[in-house]
Amino acid sequence: MSTRELALGSGVNASRFTLTDTELVVERAADKKWPKVKTSLRNVLWAELKGDAFEVSLLAKKKPKSPLSLLHVTGSVGDADKESAASFTEALMSAAYAGLPRQRRLKVFVNPKSGPGKAVAQYRKKIEPIFNAAKCKVDVTFTTRGKHAQEIVEKLPLDGFDAIVVMSGDGLVHEVINGYAAHAEPAKAFRIPISPIPTGSGNGLAINLLGLEESKDVAVAALNAIKGRPMAMDIFSMTQGDKRYMSFMSQALGLMADIDLGTEHLRFMGGTRFVVGFIYEVIKNKQVSAKVSIKIAEQDKRKMVQDLQAARAQARSTIASADASDPATLTTDGESSTTGTGLPELKHTGAARVNDDGWVTFDKPFTFLYAGQGPYVSTDLMQFPVSQPNDGLIDVVLQLQSDRGTMLKAIDGAEHGNPFWMDAQHYYKAHAFRVEPHFTKGYLSIDGESYPVAPFEIEVHKGLGSLLSMYGCFQAEFNLPPEQPAKK
Ligand SMILES: Nc1ncnc2c1ncn2[C@@H]1O[C@H](COP(=O)(O)OP(=O)(O)OP(=O)(O)O)[C@@H](O)[C@H]1O
């Protein structure tokens, strides 16, 4: 391990900076409350020497469970130390931004009405100072109405921004990707990565990118916008009649859609409304009827877990080598980056194709159909534990009727993905699927937004979209269950 040191001042004004391969340690005699700050190089936002003033801006945690705090540490450099301070500053900046571009140009959307309505205050107090410390070039819009962000994205000058930051819930991300789709150069627009800052009532995307615990700290999400790497994400086309929409997260019909969209009146309960809604719906035990056709790629649950683990190992090694590479070559992109500027054509549309090889049709009532990507759909439900961001497949769950006791048991461990193993939960990796509901009253939820209950088809566009991620894969722990002793 290599170590470099910079010692400034003396007596009560003394400060010492130690740079290792992984950390920066700052010791400050004058700061009685926090005399020794230790933080990973990822958390270093900027370092500079201006005249005789040396300054480092960083994020650090006071205690392991504290949120990240923004610190500006300054020191005065005497003439004799200028050269060593300059070379230390350079080494620190190179290490802090290894393989990453500096000073990203960010288009930021803040939805003042998202979640409990604190997004603007949080932006001003926590996020803006972090972006300023990292010297990002920020263009912020506080949305004033639905579709405001979408309209701006449709006309966005694509060469002007390195990422779009969405400070809201999943609904505003849905707007951004539909804005990309309506852009004059949609494929190029989709290459601009999205980085969410969770302030909504449903923040599945941020949880999946940052991790369940980490996503509770908005500073971590701000850091992701500064230090995350582009990670390709599959995008889903939803065709309904002659209309085409884009979805990045989920499509639900039956119980799960009813919980999501039919519990608005329980909004005062916060996240608990989904659990209350679930129990209520299970007691009703309603079934919905639809013809569902799925173009299946995989249906062996154990194989899905093994494939996930292999993909995560691969992502970790890609990120490790990206740390050592040049920013220009940096990407964990998918295939669609090379497919010109238009949106890909649909391949599977049309009922005539349904009987093609690989399509399987179900025509029995079911409790819910829930399809999507990203393990967590909310803090208490890991619905798609084996989901991968860029496998060109969508995870489709068809929950067949099972007794109320089994359904209620599914609540237990839902945040760890346990329902995945339920026999009544038919889980498929699919290239596409289509649904013809035999009813019109009820809810169809696309990324948590309400759409008319009418026939629709979903097709996957591998790697068409892009997210920023510090890990190169979704953040959720899911493993094979321990071996059960063989039954006699
Ligand atoms: N200023 C505004 N006033 C009202 N609605 C807005 C405003 N800005 C954006 N919106 C809309 O608010 C919705 C917010 O959805 P999002 O999921 O991002 O946040 P949320 O708080 O989780 O939402 P919800 O409570 O509906 O789940 C988006 O559909 C967006 O169109």
TrEMBL record:
Residues 101-242 form the DAGKc domain. PANTHER family: ACYLGLYCEROL KINASE, MITOCHONDRIAL, SPHINGOSINE KINASE. It comes from Lentinus brumalis. This is DAGKc domain-containing protein. InterPro entries: ATP-NAD_kinase_N, Diacylglycerol_kinase_cat_dom, DUF7493, Lipid_Phosphate_FormReg, NAD/diacylglycerol_kinase_sf. GO terms for cellular component: cytoplasm; membrane. One of its GO terms (biological process) is sphingosine biosynthetic process. SMART domains: DAGKc. Pfam families: DAGK_cat (PF00781), DUF7493 (PF24321). GO terms for molecular function: lipid kinase activity; phosphotransferase activity, alcohol group as acceptor. Residues 329-343 have a biased composition (Low complexity). Residues 318-346 are annotated as: Disordered.
